What does this fold into?
Amino acid sequence: MAKINIKLNKQQQQMLVAGILLLGGFGTSYVALFWMPVSQKIAAAQKEIEEVDAKIEKATRQAARLPRLEQDLVQLNQQAVDAERRLPKKKSTTDILVTVTELADKNHIILLSFGTGGTAGKNVSFTELNYPITVKGSFHNIGKFLASIALEERIFNVSNVVYGAASDAGDMSVTFTLVSYQYKG
It folds into this structure.
């Protein structure tokens, strides 16, 4: 390797030191006044971009769930309608009378009396509505009638069933309490 031997006079040495100091000062000023603020702005902008990207990704995931949520909402609304049919919020004595009359006609039963009884609020969620009923018909038709009441969409219960004596024609009268339920919510 060749050795380079450069001899500088005092003025050249001073100029070289001044140039190095000037270059160092300029480099320090450049880094402090330009590079650091710009790199901090770049880092802040990258962080903000990451946050916005995360929000966009979250919104995209939520938007992808929207059709499923809408489908679930439709199903829940249908379930609420079905539950309302089984356990209505309104007291509808006329609807119950129509239902009992139709079931009596289908099962060849004569509806002798339909009364409105009291209510009982044994449960926090629903109220029991009592309807004393007397019907007349054959033993089998009365059995079918009571079974058809149990199979109705609306929730009914039959209690206090009292069978009367059968007539010569084979008909008998039956008195019972029809219990219907009303949702308190």
